[in-house]
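ok so I'm stuck.
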Amino acid sequence: MLCNTLNAAHFTGPGKDFAKHRFPAGSATSPTSLARAGKARRNETWDWTQPISQPSGGQTAEGGVPGKAGGAQTVCGSFAIELCEMSTQIYETAASGPLKKDGRMKKAFFMIIFLYSLCIYTFGQDIEQTNAAQYRGVSLSMVFHNIGWNALHSITYNYGLNFIGAGLETWAFIETGLDWKWRNTAYENNWLSRCGIPGLYIAYTVPVFAPAAAYITGRIIKDERLQITGLALVQALALTFGIQSVLKMSTGRALPGIVNELDHTRSQRADDFSDEFNWFNMNFIGGWPSGHTANAFAAAAVIAEMYYDNLPLKIGVYTYAALMGLGKSVTVHWASEVIAGALIGYAVGKTVGKSYRGIMGNRENRLTFYITNNSLGVIIRI
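replied:
not stuck anymore, here's the structure
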């Protein structure tokens, strides 16, 4: 239609005779022939609802990258490039003849270029908005990814040596008096416990806000790994809370009394009571192991597993977890409880982190169950 318009507008009047001489009927360069050729190409290839077919190599017909928004990925891009090619051919033909001094052809040429640019911009914006609307992100339901297996494998991680080691080191600290000595060191040096008090509040806020911040930020910047990391943190912290709550309610170990978690008061007991356990007292607030230390190491292990290629980040998160444990050991927990919490939290975090990292395609599942119409079995990848 645009070529027909140009034919009517710019090949009548003073230049009409020249147009007939310069572009005889039926020639390949005549406006009518160009219009017919463009119409034939449009009838063959135009589909306003489908993207242009992609040649080998993953490129679009105009050299665009699949999945990226832009006019070159649409039929509009094909139409615009066709306009540009047609206008160039008309301009070159006219510029070499008597009409080279006639400004109407140049105006027509630049008008086509303008329409081409407008087409690219307009349709590119529409497609970009469509792609943004179609982006759904990572579903919140992924927080339950393999949660049953992850809970079981957290306990059996490293053949259960983390949980066994947590129990053995606690027994050793009690028998050798290390728990009591470290408690008295923190008790007698009040500045130590004061340095650890800020960690009491950080330990409550970070596990709540960190997963939400990671997921929401990932949705905003469309970073799927960050979204998955946020959901992995939710699952790891939930499993850690469940495991350490059961252990706390079962062991019921007495608090060291260095600093009360609520009113910051101190115990006046002078005898060694590090071996006092009130079994099955059903109190999941204090006692063995340190829950906040377990949460810190679980979160650190998840982040380190998801961002295995970022060494500074891994150093940072494990440093945070270690400082959190140190702060707990000089305020509300025995030193052995902090170590136990670190071992248990690490086991949970590594298990959950590896499970969610597999979603990113970085690692295949080693154990896979399959079932067909006439068979079932297990695939083990070595």
